[in-house]
Amino acid sequence: MTKRKQTTRDQYSPLQWAQLRLRVLAIAMREDKPLPSGDKKFLADALERIADGEDPEAVLGVKAKRGERKTANAQATAFRQQALLSFIAAVMCPPPDGYGYSLEKAIQCATEDSPGEADFGYSEDTVRNLATNNL
Fold first, then answer.
1. 30-58: string of b/e by CB count within 10 Å (b at 16+)?
2. Which tens digits make up the pLDDT trace of 67-84?
3. Side-chain half-sphere CA neighbours of 98 within 13 A
4. Is residue 7 classed as helix, strand or coil in its secondary structure?
5. Which of 10, 50, 83, 92 has a CA-to-CA distance to 62 between 20 and 30 Å?
């Protein structure tokens, strides 16, 4: 029997946690499962506040802070950029840990379409900007 991984609140940002809570509530409602009284009260209060003209994102707790991304696509992009920067830093390390490449050579490796090379899907200019602004 496979144990299900326990989800804890500290694995998520407050925004992600609020999105997860709403997703779980939506699934439970769609499947006609009873909602805990706390969740019923939360939804009733939220709907009433929205009807009174308050911002739905703020009321439901899914309003992104300045610079915070909400979508999975944005999270995937941030992960891909972090992987790219890690790759560049790694190949710039001196041997034996890395290849000792210059920044220009590392950028070239990250943008080449050669078999076996890393492909991050960014142009050379974009990689150069990311590297010079973040490394």
1. eeeeeeeeeeeebeeebeeeeeeeeeeee
2. 666 666 777 787 888 888
3. 15
4. coil
5. 83
